[in-house]
Each structure stands twice: as C-alpha cells, then as structure tokens.
Write a structure and sequence with these properties.
About 75% of the residues lie in helices and about 0% in strands. It is mostly helical and about 500 residues long. Helix 5 packs parallel to helix 7 and helix 8 packs antiparallel against helix 18. It starts with 13 loop residues before the first helix and ends in a 12-residue tail after the last helix. It comes from Lepidopterella palustris CBS 459.81. One of its GO terms (molecular function) is transmembrane transporter activity.
C-alpha cells in the first residue's frame, strides 16, 4: 500500500464522529465552516494563501522576534557586565562567577519541559507577558546585588522565569505554519539571538558609561535599565501576543478556517483544542526522536552558550579594552544572523534540514580549531566569526527539524520542551569550561566546544538523518501499514507522526 492509500482505514461510526480529537474539544465553530475558498481555482487559492501568510507574518513574527531579542539580551548581558568589573566589584572568585552562570541553566532546563503545557492551558497572550514581567523584575534586582549570594539567587530565578519563552514560541509558531514554511520563520525568530549579541555589545558599551551615577557601577545600570525595559515590554505584550489560530481575534472566521485546513492538509492538527493527558507526555518520552534531537541540540546549544557568555572575555584577552571588546563582539553576531535566516530559507526549500546541519557544523568546527591552534589575534578573531556561523544557524534548524517530525498537539510541545531543556542544561558545562586560569588561550574551553560540535551536532545529525531516511523507506514500502488496519479515521488521526503516510523530514 502506498503511503497515501487509506483503503484499509474504515470510516468512523456515528458514535466515533462524536469523539473529540484525542478526547479534546475541537473548535467546532471553525470545523463546521464551509470551505471559504470553495469554487476557486488553484491559482486563486494560492493567492488567498499568500495573502493569509503575509497577514500572519506581519502579526506574529516581528513582536516575537523582539521578545526573544530581549530574552537573550537579559540572559547573556552578564558577559558584558563581567568585563566592566562585575566580578571584581562583587569580590567573586572565578569558581563563584561560573557557579552563578550555571544556576541559570539548572532552573531554566528543569522548567522547560512543563512550560509548553502551561502555554497551551493559559493561552499565549497571558503566559508570555506574565513570565516577561517576572524576569524583568529579577533582572532589575541583579543591578542591586552586593555579593555572590545575591547574584546566584537572581540568576536562578531568572532562568526559572525565562524558561517558557524559547520553547513556547517555537511550539506556538509550529501551530500556525506548514512544515515547509516553519523553518524560515523559526530562523528569523532565532536570528534575534544573534542580533541581541550584536546589539548587546553596543548597548553595554553605552550604558557602562553611566558608571558612578546614583553611586552605582556601570554594570549595575546594564541590569537595571534592561530589566525595567523588559517589564514594560512584558506589559505591552498582553495586547501584542495573539492566541492560537482557533481563538485568534485578528483573523476573520474564514481565515481561521483557512489556517486550520492548511495544517490538516499538511498532516497536522496542532492548531486545534485538546485536553492534556499524561499519555501525550509518555508518547514523547517513548519516542526515540526525542532523544536523537536532544543530542543534536546539545551539540549546538552547549556551544552557543559558551560562545555568547565568553565572547567578550575572549576578545578582551586578545588585548582590547572592555569597551572595544564589547564593540568587536558585534560583527560575528551580525554575520551569524544573516546566515541563520539564509539556512532557514534553504532548508525550507530543499527539505534537507539534516544536510544543512551537517554542512554548517563544519564552519564552527573549523572556527574553534583556529581558536585552539593559533595565538595570533587576527586568526583568533576570524575563528570567532566561523564559530558564530557554525553555531547559530544550527539552533533554529534543529528546532525546526524536530518540530517537523513530531505530530500531536501536546506531544510536540513536550518534545520541544525536552529537546530544548536538555540542550540548555548543557549550559552548566558551558559556564565552567572557560576558566580564568586558562587565559589567554582558553584551550580547555575551545576544545570542549569543538568536541560538542563534532560528537553531538555533526555526529548526531548524521545518524538521525540516516535513521529517519530508513524509516521513510519502510513506510513507503508499506511495512508500517499494519499500524492502521482496522482503525477508524479518528483513531488513525490520533497516531500523529506514527501514521504510515506521515513521512519524516530529512
């Protein structure tokens, strides 16, 4: 049986038709709408699709990018504060500073698998603004601490509050766009992290000049001003963040129907209402793909945090002043932002996300090999460029790859939470590999990042792609058709990515 053949699938009985999708309450008002594009030609439907996508992009993407820019700025500005005197003024040892960094990733990672469940239950327009206000308050208090204990506590609660944004927005976007459209949007969203790194260096250099105002150091003002700005953005987000397609107020009923029908045609049901059950959680835990993508993500995410937290320090050790080091951190991030969006576009068009990861990872591996093998400032600075180019595109691409290959409303949310949470837990490692005693070469740090990229990013992407291709061949040959025999259409729909006609994105 060909993947699209459903001859062995029996039609649902009258009783089964009354069963909501996965025991949830489907938005019946949307389901009952007649096709708003009935009678239109394919060309006319394509025009309606382009109009709808343009409306979604303008309403969703810019503000979400801005939120992630704020988020990444708030979690990594401690690297800029360090070279402006934070560690010296708080009388911290290198071990204490690294411990403060690590605490963020502990709370951040442990909370992430649960956040998408909360996002779905509380609605995006409530959940995202609420966590932003909370972490803005924490960020502001970081500018008021006087010792290691205060900084450590603030970093722990910052991680707890920020945990819901990145996995939440990626899951949220996957509920709006087809699989072939999601990658470029995820890439644009994540490119805000690279822009944050670039913008953060410029902003930190400017704010640090407030040194002495109000009796506070320049690094204190970095935390205070950026924290207050986060609170204001969080409040505004209540009106700027929209809910899921079936509840989105900015769409007409016809457009809501179009969004959901486009997702169904793409073999997705993630836009619809569904009640949470523990079976969705266990479906993710038992899926080998959850662990495969977690391994890949740790390869690029561990490298990301090592790079973003210590880039100003690395450049500072090349012989530049703190202000110039902050400014010189801007170009690598800008280049990474451009390549991130380009790879997102290429991966969407080719549907070869695994190959994109493999090719891009070599840039980062070469970059860190340069940092590891040379003591020349020019070579090392070039290595930071290649390092950024090899890391940032793989973050967004890996999340898109994982999202493309997991179907089911809560299962996808839980899987993304696990993948991103495990990746971020490796920030604990990243926080402790660039030790003060290893400067100026930082060989253990560079070597660890390089190993992460070779073993987990490159190796994991290669193995996962091979396993997905092998499973696709089995489904195409009809070896998985037994999974749907005797099942109704409703029961087949409930299989999600285990449906024999669901072919994985490679």
């Amino acid at each position: 049986m060909k993947p699209e053949d459903t001859s062995s699938v029996r039609a649902p009985s009258e009783e089964e038709k009354k069963i909501p999708y996965e025991q949830g309450e489907i938005a019946s008002a949307v389901n009952d709408l007649a096709d708003p594009d009935a009678g239109l030609t394919e060309e006319e439907r394509a025009v309606q699709d382009r109009r709808l996508l343009w409306k979604l992009d303008l309403k969703l993407i810019p503000w979400l990018c801005f939120l992630y820019l704020i988020s990444f700025l708030d979690r990594t500005n401690i690297g800029n504060a360090k070279i402006d005197g934070l560690q010296k003024n708080l009388h911290m040892t290198d071990g204490q500073y690294n411990a403060a960094l690590s605490l963020f990733f502990v709370s951040y990672s442990l909370a992430e698998p649960l956040t998408n469940v909360l996002l779905k239950r509380l609605r995006p327009s409530v959940f995202l603004p609420a966590i932003m206000v909370l972490w803005g308050i924490v960020m502001t208090t970081m500018g008021l601490v006087h010792d290691f204990s205060g900084l450590a506590a603030a970093r722990f609660f910052l991680g707890l509050a920020e945990a819901g944004l990145f996995p939440g927005v990626n899951y949220y976007l996957s509920c709006w766009y087809k699989r072939s459209e999601f990658g470029i949007r995820a890439a644009i969203f994540f490119s805000a992290a690279a822009v944050a790194g670039s913008f953060g260096g410029l902003l930190a250099a400017a704010i640090a000049k407030m040194n002495g105002i109000g009796g506070k150091h320049g690094w204190c003002w970095i935390f205070i001003l950026e924290g207050l700005a986060t609170i204001l953005v969080g409040i505004a987000s209540y009106w700027m963040v929209h809910d899921f397609p079936d509840d989105a107020k900015f769409l007409s009923p016809a457009d809501r129907a179009r969004v959901i029908r486009r997702l169904r045609a793409d073999k997705q049901s993630s836009a619809e209402h569904e009640e949470f059950k523990m079976s969705f959680f266990w479906a993710s835990v038992k899926d080998w793909k959850t662990y495969a993508f977690a391994i890949i993500y740790m390869g690029c995410d561990g490298a990301l945090y090592a790079f973003s937290l210590f880039l100003p320090t690395i450049i500072n050790e090349l012989g530049y002043t703190s202000t110039k080091a902050n400014l010189l951190s801007v170009p690598p991030y800008a280049a990474a932002a451009i390549l991130t969006v380009l790879i997102g576009y290429i991966a969407d068009r080719t549907k070869q996300r695994g190959l994109c990861n493999i090719v891009v990872s070599f840039l980062g591996i070469v970059g860190f090999a340069m940092l590891l093998g040379s003591s020349k400032p020019g070579v090392n600075y070039a290595g930071t460029f290649l390092g950024a180019l090899g890391i940032y595109p793989c973050i967004a691409n890996t999340i898109s790859w994982a999202s493309n290959n997991v179907e089911g409303v809560y299962k996808r949310g839980v899987t993304l939470g696990f993948v991103i949470g495990w990746g971020n837990l490796n920030g604990v490692v990243s926080s402790n590999i660039y030790r003060g005693k290893d400067k100026p070469r930082f060989k253990p740090g560079h070597g660890t990042v390089m190993a992460y990229m070779i073993l987990f990013l490159l190796g994991g992407s290669t193995v996962t792609r091979w396993l997905l291709a092998r499973e696709n061949k089995r489904r195409t040959k009809g070896e998985r058709d037994g999974w749907v025999e005797g099942k109704s259409e409703v029961e087949v729909e409930m299989l999600g990515d285990r449906r024999p006609d669901f072919l994985y994105t490679l």
